Amino acid sequence: MGGYPTQRKTPVTPGPQTDPSVHQLRLLLVLAEELHFGRAAARLFMTQPALSRQIKTLEDRLAVRLVERTTRTVQLTPAGRALLPAVRETVSAMDLLRREADTHGRTLTGRLSIGSIGAEAAMPFTRAILDELRGRHPDLDVRMSSLNFVEHIAALLSGVVDVVFLRPPVPPGIGLLHLATEPRVACLSADDPLAAEPRLTLARLSGHTFLDVPPAASRVWWDFWAVNPRPDGTAVRFGPAVADMEGLLHAVSRGEGICFLPAAAREFYPRPGIAYRDVADLPPSTSALAWLDGNRDQPAVAAIRHAARTVLACPSPT
Q: What domains appear along the chain, each with residue ranges and CATH number?
């Protein structure tokens, strides 16, 4: 049956609580679609008498009859039809409010300290990751700092920074998300005779002194960058130690040694007295986001890891 055998003829008077609940408004919308208490109750996973009581309470709170009930039919009253658009708008506004509240409830606050070595902060994928992070968590205070050859690992291990954009390898205990791979090039003085050659090999560079890093820097990391030992087993001859990119480039320009850098150095570090040359058998390097294994699930660290995975999952624009 569609309704109840009694039809109320007395005016509706407001009850002690005059504001309807959003739940009651949702019930009315379903009833307006079904025009049948039984079907509406089934859709709402409630009993027919419970639905009828809720609609009656809604009418009492609004002080207006919304539904005409007979033994066979359910119809909206003229007032019910007139109020229906406002009911829909109210329910939609509450849905929007809930979505906004949920979004802000997931928004992080606090600070995320990010370190970067060399030009990693300026790389396209780094900028995309930071844009994604700020879009998702606008209230997160993101601080970026430039780190030198010693600091980029030490600052992460000591907790000075939470994550680092760097170039592996890294010591055990550090997690990595690889972001991009690119060739490495030789960086040598423009006055070096080999600078006249467009393409070199490791063997051609074997007699050259390679710039070193301070003792506090990771030896495994710098041996990778120096390709030490070389493929034939020869140990690299190291020269003066440099702590950062500007010191390294200055030493190269003075002919104190050579080094290997990511190919992006051509764009980010053009300097007078410096030449960059391809090396046919020089293995590539990777860019990565790094964090301490024990901190991977901290909210801010997890947020930037998620932002990085989101960026990596999106195809690069062509």
A: 22-105 (1.10.10.10), 111-179+286-313 (3.40.190.10), 184-283 (3.40.190.10)
